[in-house]
Design goal:
Layout lengths: L2 H4 L5 H7 L6 E2 L2 E2 L10 H9 L14 E4 L6 E5 L14 H11 L11 H14 L9 H12 L4 H8 L3 H17 L2 H11 L9 H9 L8 H10 L14 H16 L5 H9 L23 H12 L9 H10 L3 E4 L3 H14 L7 E7 L6 E6 L2 E2 L24 E2 L12 E2 L5 H10 L8 E3 L15 E2 L2 E2 L10 E3 L1 H7 L2 H11 L1 H10 L7 H7 L16 E2 L1 H12 L3 E3 L4 E5 L7 E2 L2 E2 L5 E3 L3 H15 L15 H7 L4 E6 L5 E7 L4 E7 L15 H13 L32
Parallel strand pairs: 3-5, 8-9
Antiparallel strand pairs: 1-2, 3-4, 5-17, 6-7, 6-23, 10-15, 11-14, 12-13, 16-20, 18-19, 21-22, 22-23
Length: 728
Amino acid sequence: MTKTGLAKAGRIAPLIRAGLIAGIVVAGLIFPLVALAGVGAKNGADALASMPEGLTEVPSAQTTYVYANDGKTLLTTFYEEHRKPTKIADMSPFIIQAIVASEDTRFYEHNGVDAKGVARAFVANQQAGTVSQGASTLTMQYVRMALRDGAKTPKQALEATEQTTARKLREMRLAIELEKRLSKQDILERYLNSAYFGHRAYGIFAAAEVFFSKKPADLSLTEAALLAGLVKAPSAYDPATNDRTAATNRRNYVIEQMHKMNAITGAEAAAAKRSKIKLKLTAPPNDCVSVPKKHNDWGFFCDYLRNWWIEQPAFGKTSQERMANLRRGGYKVVTTLDPKIQKSALKHVLDKEKRKSVYAHGEVVVEPGTGRIKAMAVNRKYSLDQENNGEHSDRRKRDDFKGNYPNTVNPLLGGGDMAGYQAGSTFKIFTMLAALDEGMPLSTAFNSPQRYVSKYITAPGPATCGVHWCPKNSSASMTGRQTMWSGFGKSVNTYFVQLEQKVGAEKAVRMAERLGLKWRTEVDRTLAGPDHADGWGAFTLGVSDATPIEMANVFATLGAEGKYCEPIPVRMINTRDGASLTYQGKKVAGPRCRQALRPAVARAATDAARCVTGYGAAKGSCGGWETSPMVHATMKRPVAGKSGTTDSNRSAWFCGFTPQLAAAAFVADPDNPKNTVGTSRGTISKFTVAQTLKDALKGQPKAKFTPPPDELIHGSWNRSGSSNRSGW
C-alpha cells in the first residue's frame, strides 16, 4: 500500500490528520498508527505502508476423528487443539450476536480498524494511567490468530502476539486488506472457528460440545453469551469452577451489550441475566487411552492404528511429523474395526482367560484379499494405570516391576515394538509352502519316526544327538509314513524336518518373509540372515517370534488364494476438505496387495490345512485323525488352519481361515515367555477362533475352497530337483 493508499483505508486517515494518536505509549500498550512520541503522521503512514501485503492464512489445527468401519461409531479423536470447523449457517444467531457485542460492537461499521475505538481507548488509557481498554477489532483479532497459527518458528509465534508497534501496525494493515477480500460473515465464521474458549476448546464447535454437550446451532441466548464472554480471558471467567461469580458477571455484561445493540429486548435481557449458569461438561476423547470406557478393548486396535500411522510416508517425513499431522490434520478416518466381530472376539477370549490372569489370551481377525483388520481382542484393559496390577510372573523382577495385567498399553497383538511369541508348529506352513512352491506335491512322503536325527548342527541340549539336532514327535501315534496332508493334519515334527531338509531351510525362512514376517530379536535376525538361514533347522517348529497380526495375515493369504495384502487398519481417510487422501497416485487407505503365491500353491496348502480342522482334504488322506477337530465341529462350514505349541507349552496358538475371514489366537505370558501355559490351555485358542469365526460368518454363504490342481497332488517332481512350476 502506498502513502496515498493509506487515505483510502477506511477511517484511519482522519485520525492521523487530527493528530489525536500521534506518538502514544501508555504502560506498555503501543497504539499502532505511529511508532514513538514525536513521530508524525507521515512517518506513521510510512510505517504502515511498509507492512507486508499478504496474510498467509495457514489452516488452523483441527481434530482428527476416528470411526469404526461403519463410519458412524466414534472410537476416539486425536488433537492438540480440539477444533472442528463449522459454517456460520450452522451456528445459533445468538452466538454471532454475542461475540460482536462482547468483542466489537462497531464490527459492521468499520473497515477492519475502528478509528473511534482507537481514540476512545487512547483517552481512557490516558485518564487511567494504564491499559484499561484495547482497540483491536474482531478482524484484527482474527489476523492475530491467523499469524499465530501460521507461525513456522517460535520467533514468528512471538512476533504474532507480542505487544509491539510493529505487530499492531501489521495487524491493522492486514485487517484492512482482509476486509477487502472477505465479507463480514466470512470474517465472523473464521473468527468463531479460531477463538479459544478454554478447556482445550478451540472454535465454537468444540466450545459448545465441551461446556454444553451440544452443537453450535442449538446454543441458547444465555449459553451463547457465556461462551462469547470467555474469549476475553478463558481462565478468569471459567464457569467450570465452584465460584461462578466472575463468569456470571461477564455473561451478564455480554447480555447487556446485546440489549444495547438491539439484538434482544429488555425483557429478554432481564430474564437471561436472572438465570443461573447450567453446564453439561464433556471431555472429548483424545488418543487411545480415551476410547469409551465400555469399549476399552478398542484401545489395542487404536494403538495399532497409531503405530501404523507413524510409519506411513504419506503423513510426513519423520515419525514426529506424522504424529503431529494426526493431531492437527483434521482427518476423518474410517477404520476397519467391526464392532460386532470385536465384541464376539472379546467375549470368547474372556470366556477362556480372565483379565486378571498372568497369561495373555488374544485374537486378531483379518479379511482375506484386503488385509483389513476386523478385530483385535485380548484379555487386558488398555490403560496406563498399573497401580492395582498383579505381581510380575518373573520372581526376579517382582521387587522392581508390576505385572502387565489386567492393565497395560503394551501392543500384545502386534504393531509395536514387542517381538511377539514363539508360534510353534504354525510355522510348518512356511516349510510346506516352500516345498509346494518348488513343485513338490502334497503326496510327498517320508517315513517319520518318533525321533529323527537331522542333518542340522546344533549346540548340545535335550534335542541333540551328538552334534546333530534330533527333534521328536509329541505322540508315538505319529510314527509312520506321512504325506503333507497327514503330516500337517497331525503336526508331525519328524516329517516336517525331513521336508525342510529336502527343500532347504533358507527357502522356508524366505517364504515367511514373503508372507510378511519380520525378525524383531537379535537372535532371529541373525539366524534368518544369509549366513545362517540354511542351517536353521528348528525354524520349521516355530522357535522364532511372531505376532498374532502377522500370523492371521499369513493364513488370510491362503484364504485369498495366494494374494498377500498388508495388514491395514483403515478403510477410508478423508482430508479436512473431504477429499480422499492419496499418496503417489494411490489411496492411502486402499488395500496394498500382491500375488505372493501361485494360486495353485495356496490351494494345495489349503487342502492340507483342511486336515487340521476335521473338515477333511478334497484330494488326499488326512491319515485318520487331526489335531483340531473341534474347529469344523463348531463352525460347520469349510475351514482350514493350523495349531501350534512350543517346547514345554510356553505358548499355544491356533490360526484358522475361510475364504471370507482368517483369525489367529494365542495364549502366553508376555511378561515371562518361559512361563509355561500348561496342557490345560492347549486347546483354548482353537475354540476361540472357531467360535469367533462362526459368529462373524453367521448368515453368510458357506464359501468353499478351490481344490488344488493335479500337478500338486501327485506332481511332476523328480529327485534330480527339477520341478513343474506352472499353475499361476
